[in-house]
Amino acid sequence: MATVLKANKRENLQSSTTRKLRKDGFLPGVLYGGKIDSQPISVESVEFLKTIREIGKNGIFSLDVNGGKKHQVMLYDLQTDPLKNDFVHVDFFEVDMTSEIEAEVAVQLTGDAPGSNEGGIVSHLMYNITVNCLPSDIPENIEVDISSLNIGDSIQIADIRDSVSVDITNEDEETIVVVQAPAAEVEPDESGEAEDAEPEVINEKNEEED
Asked: Where is the composition biased (Acidic residues) (predicted)?
């Protein structure tokens, strides 16, 4: 059975009304898509969180607006208050289950890089990869195994393209992760002579006796 999230239409879009919605435990948002007009809605914050935890960030679920037509949607954008870290607005996109779409998929590194045991630094450069596929085929994440990386090694899009079941739209040469060499340490001056020596006085005049 498909996951269903209930939503209510928002008629009053004034800021004061939106703030009250959030205070009452609702998350304001908008529903849109290629075949429907954009419509402001709200969902219960607790139920929204339960839904996202159940189906994942890229999952497809039904949005039931005012007990009417159910829309097959996916989470498109989620805005967060930078100070309170609370969700403040959500965008739902109605998908055509028969047409391919582009989506951002999170990269998950797996394994331990041998280079890190030698002092190397694992630099995760790409946190999301763009894929093009049917909505039902969007993966929750893309795993990238780093267990063979030594210092100086890297993994690029070209290295994982054949192992991913959906089409990746990123360029082959884009680097996902690299193991960098540790920063070179400055060797101390063992003699210590140059740093502590007094500067030589040039053109010093000798005193003459009468």
From this structure: 186-210
Radius of gyration of the chain (CA): 29
**Widest Cα–Cα separation across the chain:** 116
* Euclidean distance between CA atoms 155 and 114, whole angstroms: 14
**Is 12 in contact with 26 (CB distance < 8 Å)?**
no
Distance between CA atoms of residues 184 and 1, nearest Å: 58
The sheet with strand 175-180 has its strands ordered as 121-124, 175-180, 154-156
Domains and CATH numbers, the chain: 4-94 (2.40.240.10), 101-180 (2.170.120.20)
pTM of the full structure: 0.72
Which helix (H) or strand (E) segment is 21 a member of? helix 15-23
- How do residues 63-104 score in pLDDT, each as one tens digit? 999 988 899 999 999 999 888 888 999 999 999 999 999 999
Q: pLDDT digits over 127-166, tens only?
A: 999 999 999 999 989 999 999 999 999 999 999 999 999 9
Type and span of the H or E element at 75: strand 70-80
